[in-house]
Structures are given as C-alpha cells and as structure tokens.
C-alpha cells in the first residue's frame, strides 16, 4: 500500500498516473499548498524540502517524481518499464528521463521560478527570455528523438512517457504551444490511455473539492 502526498496541477500528477498504470492500491493525501500545509512540522518531518509529490512506500519515503517513477517501475515492471531484464531498453528509458529533466523541464521550471515561485526581489525578467529559447531548442531535439515512434523510447510505453507528456502539457498550459506535428500526435495518443484518464479524473475531483 502506497500513500501519495500531492497537490493538483503539480508534478504529483506524474506519480498519480504511474500508480494508475501499475494498478496498485494507494491513498492520495492532498497537501494543501495554498494553506501552507507543506511547511508544517508534520509534513517537513517527511519532506525536509517541503515539496510535493512524496510517496510513502513500505520501505520508506521517496521524493522527486523521476525517482518515484523509477522506483515504481522497478517494483512493478510493465507498462512502466517494458522489459527490466533488457539493460539497453532500461538504459534508453533512463536516457530519456535525464533528457526530460535536464533539457525539457529545466527551462520551464526556470520560467516558473522567475514568474511566481521565487521572492519578487529575486526574480530576473530577462532570464525568462533565455529559458524560453532553451525550451524551444530542447523541444526541437525531442521531436527529432521521437521521430515517428509511438512512444518516447520506441514502440513500447514506459514511465518516460509520463514524464514527457506531463512536461509538454506544462509548456502548453504556460502558453508555449508545440509546433511539431509528431509531438502533438504523440501527446494525443498517450493521453488516450485509460490510466491517464483515470488519473485525470481523480485529480479533477481533488481540485473540485477546493472550489466548493
């Protein structure tokens, strides 16, 4: 039994989606960022970085969404990790995971930090222009890497697709639409997965509870 500590419209969705793909039992505990619950002592005892998502496992607590997804993939295998005995396949998933975190997501997070996350006196407006250029360059590379494949690492779904699609949707919601047809088709295809739809419905239900 897992417990996911998260909040809607954050990287928590990645873990929620992965749990649905793995079809395992879990509990979703909302940490209300608006009310500062992530900074309370009981949560800081679990997450000293005061971040979501956080996954409580039978072995202990894990933070950072790529690490959580890698853990779930190692424990539960397909579809999160197509063939854990094939080291090259696993290596390609790790390769894509690193590319997404370091190249595709990093400039988006930089823009977010200099828009709202950092204290106002620490924000540098011009940094966002460079970050936008970095993202557009990384997106072009991702389109080339994807080519005409159905999934990020080839013909089989993996947790790398969760990271990729979530990051691409993040960019879209930040008014940075994708101009590459293969990437748009890829996102549309992956988002039709039943596990994605279940996770989306659960997140929307959690979000609706804050608007009552």
UniProtKB/TrEMBL annotation:
InterPro entries: Glutathione-S-Trfase_C-like (IPR010987), Glutathione-S-Trfase_C_sf (IPR036282), Glutathione_S-Trfase (IPR040079), Glutathione_S-Trfase_N (IPR004045), GST_C (IPR004046), Thioredoxin-like_sf (IPR036249)
Record's keyword annotation contains Transferase: yes
Entry keyword Metal-binding: no
Stretches assigned to the GST N-terminal domain: 1-80
GO molecular function per UniProt: transferase activity
Superkingdom: Bacteria
Pfam families, alphabetized: GST_C, GST_N
Family, per entry: Belongs to the GST superfamily.
Protein name per the record: Glutathione S-transferase family protein
Annotated organism of origin: Alteromonas sediminis
């Amino acid at each position: 039994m897992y417990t996911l500590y998260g909040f809607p419209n954050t990287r928590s969705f990645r873990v929620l989606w992965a749990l649905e793909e793995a079809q395992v039992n879990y509990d979703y505990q909302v940490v209300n960022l608006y009310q500062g619950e992530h900074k309370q002592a009981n949560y800081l005892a679990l997450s000293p970085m005061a971040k979501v998502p956080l996954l409580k496992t039978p072995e202990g607590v894990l933070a950072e969404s790529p690490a959580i997804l890698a853990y779930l993939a190692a424990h539960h295998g397909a579809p999160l990790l197509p063939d854990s005995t094939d080291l090259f396949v696993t290596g390609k998933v790790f390769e894509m995971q690193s590319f997404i975190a370091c190249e595709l997501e990093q400039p988006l997070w930089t823009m977010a930090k200099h828009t709202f996350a950092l204290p106002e006196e620490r924000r540098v407006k011009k940094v966002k222009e460079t970050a936008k250029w970095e993202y557009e360059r990384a997106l072009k590379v991702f389109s080339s890497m994807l080519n005409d494949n159905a999934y990020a690492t080839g013909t089989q779904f993996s947790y790398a697709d969760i990271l990729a699609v979530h990051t691409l949707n993040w960019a879209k919601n930040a008014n940075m639409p994708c101009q590459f047809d293969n990437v748009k088709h890829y996102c549309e295809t992956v988002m039709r997965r039943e596990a994605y739809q279940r996770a989306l419905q659960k997140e929307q239900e959690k979000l609706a509870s804050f608007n009552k």
